[in-house]
Amino acid sequence: MLKILQPPTRELTHQKIYSRIGKFLAEHGLCPSPENYGLVYQLVVDGESAASREVNRLVNDGIRLSQPEADRIRNEFGIAKSATVEHVDDPALAATKLLLQAFAETVEQARIETESYGRDLEEGAAALESADPQVGLEGLIRITGAILERTRAAERRLVQAESEAQTLRQQLIVVEGEARRDPLTDLANRRAFEDRCRELDVKSTPVAVAICDLDHFKMINDSHGHAVGDRVLKMMAKRLLLACGSHMVARLGGEEFVVLFEGLTVSDAALLIERARRASMRRDFVLRDTGERIGRVTFSAGIASCSGGTMQGLMRADELLYEAKKAGRNQIRFDE
Question: Of 149, 164, 255, 336, which is the active-site residue?
Fold first, then answer.
């Protein structure tokens, strides 16, 4: 689920700033360009700014921040771009880079402090070795006390570095998971789907695959805007999840979804997809905020066996989907 930005705490470490920026970019599917980085940096460090309030207003109902909206806010509120992060196509990869940059800063700081600590130890040892007998007990205590204090400071820094390393490991696990999920619908994405297909190809479990495509989706986007289109896609994802239970539902891209039915025949898979199709037909889609009626949102589907391999099954399902579209949409086609 997309998170609304909250006002920051009094102090944010570099690591937390990088982490929040990377997570926001990944969740909203925004390219981590210098312009977008500059905008989100402003949001993270000043959650009460006018720009932050505008972003929170737009994403309040779970809709992602689109690139045109991000550009408008940046220009409207005069947020300068930052050249801190280079252009990277994969938001999850960008988030990982941000986390690694933060940890690199921690390591560099620890290195600098270790060098300083080493010099202090050498100076302290030299002072003890060359201490004049006249220095007395008080002088020795002062020298050894300074060394002990530097030792304790180094230990505290080590504990902090270990804590940040553990946080980094945990966040990298989260980022890795996000790299396999669609940021809008929270379904598995194409990468996760293809990985699962490769795993299934080495097993002997019967598998059926369904490709589902929303009917006239471009018309919805053109007539009502991409924010409404996003809501429709999220509704479609929920319908498929409810109907298909524990089977893998993924978004391939655009308005196209795919379901992997492990251990089911094509006929059994068709029954589940038909349940989702009928559920979609029973509801008229109306916008809550304006009362504008969109009408019924339907989809077409093609379902095939993967007995010859998942990719071959996917190609056959795509052919059947085309047949369903050509026959008038709002229907499914599958091999008997």
Answer: 255
